[in-house]
């Protein structure tokens, strides 16, 4: 299926989790290209301070909150042309030691948040015959990593959800795409040495890829692009060889090299979100 390009300067763009990290960098990229940018975030004060954007309150785990966000953007600017489903959390550590409520929050934000976003904006896009949704997944949605089990599960789900919804509504003129970064230098990765199984990128690299999806509206975009070959590599490489190679490059850093002090601020913020459940 070929989709027409959406020009940023003609677009109303809604970004979840837009107050920090990838979301904030994406807001800046879209604003610089002339888009009307609306960011939704739990941190309403910080969302209001994103340069070139309009801030709105949003809890992606609550469908009513997402519908209120979509309605507010639509009432003010007439429509949502592009939704960037970016909000996410990334708890790290031993799978058996992770509290159940932390795992539930990870799935609620990283998976159910995407579902809520899609169900909130797709009807209006389909009615207009035009629209684009970018689900910010991760290469962790293709590469399982020790110390990230539930996060891995949430990102595998994000990749599958994106592919299925894209196929289901391909004939409507509305596209759904996944962007899959490696390890991103944001607060989510604080306290763990980056690199290893996932190459390291900056939020601006991911933001550039997100904006770039408006051109051809491809199904998946890896960041960096050469990671797109992972599926073929994994399929052709015997498991013992792959396991050996991953041990050599250190694919278990999220389990064995966590710095609790460096990660404390992020853990506190996620813990506060767990308390909202």
Please give the structural blueprint.
Elements: E1 12-16, H1 21-32, E2 36-41, H2 44-47, E3 53-57, H3 63-77, E4 82-85, H4 100-128, E5 131-136, H5 149-168, E6 174-181, E7 183-184, E8 200-201, H6 203-216, E9 220-223, H7 230-236, H8 239-249, H9 253-256, H10 260-274
Parallel strand pairs: 1-2, 1-4, 2-3, 4-5, 5-6, 6-9, 7-8
Helix pairs in contact: 1-6, 3-4, 4-5, 4-10
Structure class = alpha/beta
Give the strand order of the largest sheet, numbering strands 1, 2, ... along the chain.
3-2-1-4-5-6-9
Q: Give the overall shape, derived from the CA principal axes.
A: globular
In N-to-C order, the SSE pattern is EHEHEHEHEHEEEHEHHHH
Give the low-pLDDT segments. none
Radius of gyration: 18 Å
Distance between the termini: 39 Å
In CATH, the topology is named Rossmann fold
- Percent strand equals 15-25%
State the domain count. 1
CATH superfamily: NAD(P)-binding Rossmann-like Domain
* Major beta-sheet overview: 7 strands, parallel
Number of strand segments: 9
CATH class annotation: Alpha Beta
By DSSP (H or I, 4+ residues per run), the number of helices equals 10
Report the average pLDDT across residues.
Answer: 90
Known CATH architecture: 3-Layer(aba) Sandwich
Describe this entry's structure for a reader.
With 277 residues, the chain is α/β, with parallel strands linked by helices. The protein has a single domain, classed as Rossmann fold (3-Layer(aba) Sandwich), CATH 3.40.50.720. Helices cover 47% and strands 15% of the residues. The protein contains 10 helices and 9 strands. The chain has a 7-stranded parallel β-sheet with strand order 3-2-1-4-5-6-9, with helices on both faces. Strands 7-8 form a two-stranded parallel sheet. Helix 2 links the parallel strand 2 and strand 3. Helix 1 crosses helix 6 and helix 4 runs parallel beside helix 5. The longest helix has 29 residues. 47% of the residues are buried.
